[in-house]
Each structure stands twice: as structure tokens, then as C-alpha cells.
Amino acid sequence: MVSDFRKKKLLHLFNKFFDRDGSGSVDKKDFEQAAENISKLRGWKQGDAKYKETLDTLLKVWDGLQSVADANKDGEVTGDEWVSMWEAYAKNPSSAYDWQNQYCKFIFQLEDASNDGAIDSEEFSTVYASFGLNKDEAVAAFQKMAKGKANVSWPEFQELWKEYFVTEDPNAPGNFIFGRSSF
């Protein structure tokens, strides 16, 4: 059974980044919309290689997510299905599905706008502000996530990622990788 604390974290991710219309479920269109929003943030237009790469990656994430989480096979993943899927992940995070690893890498690359192999506070907070989160809160979340350091490397991010989905400790740095400074 997922604790209230972990459920809040999981639904934060689900609601803020995928179920943008508040319907209670996500489908392929939500991932297409996410690709469009991300491309707009980065200044990529339809037809640009980076737009296509973003769309292709997010559609692979969707296909993987749907195949694992869509328990009733209705073409949508509800908040409850999302939580159940991540609860299964938490039991053995070293056995992540390919799409979960792709999603982790995609988020890191999205945040690493300078493509220098590390995320800094400005890169991090700009992404989360573009999704409607408070930029100052995202900066505070970054400081907690980075433990006061100036940046977070890819290997560090991978560990923080796992921690987000499994930890019950409200002060664990991984809790803050999606721009929120408290739950």
C-alpha cells in the first residue's frame, strides 16, 4: 500500500506534467501536448529535428507506460493506475522498464539546457516554471535536491530519480526533482 506521502509525490508528477487538462487520466494526446509544450519552451518548431526527437521519445514513454500501467486496457492511464505502477517500481527500482529509464534520461536532458552534463538551478527552475510551477519554489526545490551544490550531474540525477519514487523520508533530496519544495 502506498503511503499518503508517496501518493502525493506521485500524483504531483501525474497531475502537473501529464494530466494537464485535469481529466483524471492521461492518454497519447497528453504526451503529444507535452512534446509541443517542451518544444515551445526550447524554441523548436514542428518539422525541426529536436521537435521530432522529443515527440518520438515521449511517444515511446507513452507506449511503455500504457503497456505496464493501463490495467483495464482502455487506452488511458488513471491516477490510480499510475500510483500502482510506481508502487511496483518501488519494490525493485533496479529492474526499471526501458521506458522508465528513457523518461529519466529525457527529463535530465530537458533540464540540462546547456548540454554540459549537469543541471543548475536556472536550468531546473526554468523548466518547472514553464509547466506552471512557481519559479521561486523550483529554485528552493533545486537547492534541497542539490544539497547546496551548484549543479547535479547525470549519475547523481539517476540516484535522485530512484529516491523520488521509493523514499518515505520527506527530507530526502530525491523528493524535489520535480520542482516542488514540500509535500
Mean pLDDT: 93
Could you say what the CATH topology of the largest domain is called? Recoverin, domain 1
Strand order, largest beta sheet: 1-2
Roughly how many Å apart are the termini? 18 Å
- Helix tally? 8
Strand content: 5-15%
Q: Name the helicity range.
A: 55-70%
SSE pattern, N- to C-terminal:
HEHHEHHEHHEH
Count of domain modules:
2
Shape field? globular
- Describe the main β-sheet briefly: 2 strands, antiparallel
Structural class computed from helices and strand pairing: mainly alpha
Give the C-alpha Rg.
Answer: 15 Å
Assigned CATH class of the largest domain: Mainly Alpha
CATH architecture of the largest domain: Orthogonal Bundle
Please mark out the parts with pLDDT under 50 across 5 or more consecutive residues, or reply none. none
Q: What is the β-strand count?
A: 4
Give a verbal description of the structure:
Helix 2 (28-42) runs antiparallel to helix 3 (49-69) and helix 3 runs antiparallel to helix 5. This protein folds into two domains: 1-97, Recoverin, domain 1 (Orthogonal Bundle); 112-182, Recoverin, domain 1. A two-stranded antiparallel sheet has the order 1-2. The protein has a two-stranded antiparallel sheet with strand order 3-4. The chain is 61% helix and 5% strand. With 183 residues, the chain is mainly alpha-helical. It is built from eight helices and four strands. It starts with a helix and ends in a 17-residue tail after the last helix. The mean pLDDT is 93. It is globular. The chain has helices at 4-18, 28-42, 49-69, 79-91, 98-111, 121-130, 135-145, 154-166, and strands at residues 25-26, 77-78, 118-120, 151-153.
